Every structure is written in C-alpha cells, then in structure tokens.
Amino acid sequence: MIQTIKRSLISAFRNLPGKSVGKKIVVIECDDWGSRGVPSIAAYQKLKAAGLPMDSSRYAHFDTLASAQDLEALFDVLSKYKDVDGNPAIVSPFFNTANPDFEKIKANGFTKYVAEPVVDTIKKYAQGDVLTRWKQGNEAKVWSPEYHGREHLATAMWLNALQSGDEKVRTAFDYHFASYSPPGTPKAALNFRPNFYVESTDDMLSVKADMENGIALFYEAFGFYPTVFNAPNGVFIDGFDQYLLGKGIQFNAVPRQRLDRGTDGQYRYRTFRTGQKSANGMTCYVRNCNFEPTERSYAGINHILSQIQGAFICGKAAIIGTHRVNFVGGIDEKNRSQGLKELDQLLFQILKRWPDTLFMSSKDFTKLL
Ligand SMILES: [Zn+2]
C-alpha cells in the first residue's frame, strides 16, 4: 500500500510539467507494427542453432508480424470496454511502412538497400487477411494507425555490416532477420533497431528521403496520412521534424528523454514536456505510462495504474506506451494470451477506478493540445 502511494506520488511529481487537459483521458500507443521482426518459428530455431542470441530479448524471441487472428483477439479485448461516451478502448498502432526486400538485396550482392512496402510484406508473409482486419479495426474504432518511421532498422549500418561479410549478420539475413548487430556496435544502435541512428553525415539525405517516402507508403497502406510520429527506439535527428511538418505531421509522441543527433554528429539526450513546441514548430507530448506485460521484469498492472493515477492527479492524459511484441502469438501463442490477459485486466481496472475515463486515439488526443 505504502509502495503504491509512493509510486503514485513519484508519478504525479513527474507529470507536473507540461500542458494539462483537465480530463481523464487514456491513449494507448503501441509501436512496431508492420516490421517483420522474427519471420517464423523455423527461422528462430535455425538462428538460435547458428549461435545468434535469439533469447537475449523478447523482441528476438517473440516479435513477429501480426496475423489476422492476433488482430481479432486484440480487437475483441478492446471492444469489451466502453467509456462513458460509449467509445471502445482504442489502440493507436505506430507503423513501420517498409521492410528490407531481402530477395532484391541478395540479388544485387548487398550493394544497395532496397525497401519493400509494408503492404507487400503483409501480402507475402502475414497469416490470414490482415489488410481487411486493419480496415475493420478502423471502422470499429479500436485501431487508429500512426507513423513509426519507414523501417525499424538503421539501414546504412546494416548494409555496411552485410558488405563486411560478418558471418552472423549474413546468416540472419539468409533467414530474413535484420535485428542482429555484431559486437562493437554502439549501444544506442543495438541490433540496428533505431532507424535514425546514422554514423555518417553522408547518409543524412537518404534517411530524410526514406522518412518522407515512408509517409507516402503509409498513405498507400491506409488511405490517409498519419497525424503523429514516434521515432524508433527513441532516437532521432535534430531538425528532421521540419521535414515531418512539411509532410503534414504536426505531432511527435516522445519519451521523457530522446536521443537526438546534433549538427556535430553527436547523439545527446533531450528532455521533453507535453505541449512543448520545437524550434521548427513541432508539438511534442510525452508518453508518461509504460505497459510491457510480456517483459521479464513485469510484475502486474499495479505499476501502470500508479502511473495513470499520477497523470490524472496532475490533470494530464495517460499516454501509455507499449509494443506489438506483447500482443502477437505467431512464435508462441502463450505470449499473446499473456499480453491480452493483462490488457483485459488493465482496461477493467481503469474503468473501475476512474469511471469517467475517456478512451482516445492519438489523433483525437492531439486536437486537445
Ligand atoms: Zn519501435
């Protein structure tokens, strides 16, 4: 009990800065949709046998494309819970809109990176009619996609590693797994996951072009443009928000601290508060709650309930950050059922403790900023 009160107070203190909305709003932002992750159980087993650290994190073990069944199961849980206005709980999935085109990159002998649009990835590799489920989720108001960068991959660094002939990077490539980086990779670029980690200024132009192209691919996939951007792994590039603004994205969902590349090429932490505008006019808001029910350290919903309470005490919306890896069962169905069981409990407890809670998409929430 004392622990819970202490946690709520700490959370309230951290929520003091920034713009208040004066209503109890819950926004669930879930990252990593569209990216291939671990292609299959067979790939996971082969790569593990080849000595790759496939059990080093739940991303290397369980994260994979969502199937139609995964989406149905998620939507079922969300639609069970309605707020005072009758709106269901809603997830805003943050999408990567391209993956490496492994066949084409192999054919060109690793000389050039080639992107595969997310719709092609889904058609080729996802189980069941995922594209129809996306539409149904939108119509049922339980699903409202946003943008997470084109790839969840530092493409230039990855291509360099492939060109260098690193044996494990090549083995991973053979099984269409891109999230492995050899020893010596900077910590901030671990497993080549941050799309906006660049080592050379020469790569800046292509990263900018890819980011803009990713927004066009988003439109192709969904028929509308994203409202909010969130940078993969909390790593971004100073000033690049002007190009997002140029493409109509006016909001960034951010961690309290994001690692931004400065003009000197160094990455440094930048602190944010909700409602803050960047020098270029980008409005930022902070994700102030975390929900990672399939993380090893996860110890039940009390922690996040304290975070939500802390936000509400300060008149802030509860912006919950979470990841696809919690809700997919393609590698192990138990992973999905564990994540959904906790989500179910969380939504139940939110409405029980705060019956006047409003569920909102990221898009609707930004209208209040
Ligand atoms: Zn991510």
3D architecture notes:
By secondary structure, the chain is of the alpha/beta class. It has a single domain (2-366), classed as TIM Barrel. The chain contains 14 helices and 14 strands. It has helices at 2-14, 41-49, 58-62, 68-80, 102-107, 118-125, 130-139, 155-164, 167-174, 204-222, 241-246, 302-313, 333-353, 362-366, and strands at residues 25-33, 91-95, 98-100, 115-117, 146-147, 228-229, 235-237, 251-254, 257-261, 267-271, 283-286, 289-290, 318-323, 358-360. Strand 9 and strand 10 (267-271) form a beta hairpin. Helix 4 (68-80) packs parallel to helix 7 (130-139). The longest helix has 21 residues, at 333-353. It is globular, with a radius of gyration of 20 Å. The two termini are 34 Å apart. The protein binds zinc ion. Zinc ion (ZN) binds next to strand 1.
